Amino acid sequence: MSGLRTLYDKVFDDHVVFNDGKSTTLYIDRHLVHEVTSPQAFEGLRNANRSVRRPDCTLATVDHNVPTSSRKSYKNVSSFIEEEDSRLQCATLEDNIKAFNLTYFGLGDDRQGIVHVIGPEQGFTLPGTTVVCGDSHTSTHGAFGALAFGIGTSEVEHVLATQTIITKKSKNMKIQIDGPLQPGVTSKDAILHAIGKIGTAGGTGCVIEFCGSTVRSWSMEARMSVCNMSIEGGARAGMIAPDEITFEYLKNKPLAPKVDSPEWEAAIRYWKGLKTDPGAHFDIEVYIDSKDIAPTVSWGTSPQDVVAISGKVPDPNDYEDAAKRAGIERALEYMGLEANTPMEEIQIDKVFIGSCTNSRIEDLRAAARIVKGKKIAANVKRAMVVPGSGLIKKKAEAEGLDQIFSEAGFEWREAGCSMCLGMNPDILSPKERCASTSNRNFEGRQGAGGRTHLMSPVMAAAAGITGYLTDIRKLDGFDASAAPPDKPQVSVGSDHEQDAATNQDYDDKTSDIPTGENLHAEGGSGGSGGSAAGFAPFTVLKGVVAPLARANVDTDAIIPKQYLKTIKRTGLGVALFDQWRYLPNTNREENPEFVLNQEPYRNAKTLVVTGPNFGCGSSREHAPWALLDFGIKCIIAPSFADIFFNNTFKNGMLPIPIDDQSVIERIAALAADKKEIEVDLINQEIKTEDGEVISKFEVEEFRKHCLVNGLDDIGLTMQHEDKIVRYETKRSEIYPWLEGTGYMAKYRKGPVKVEAVKVPQAGRRGGKLDW
Ligand SMILES: CC(C)[C@H](C(=O)O)[C@@H](O)C(=O)O
Ligand code: SF4
Question: Per the database record, which ranges form the Aconitase/3-isopropylmalate dehydratase large subunit alpha/beta/alpha domain (predicted)?
Answer without folding.
Answer: 9-467
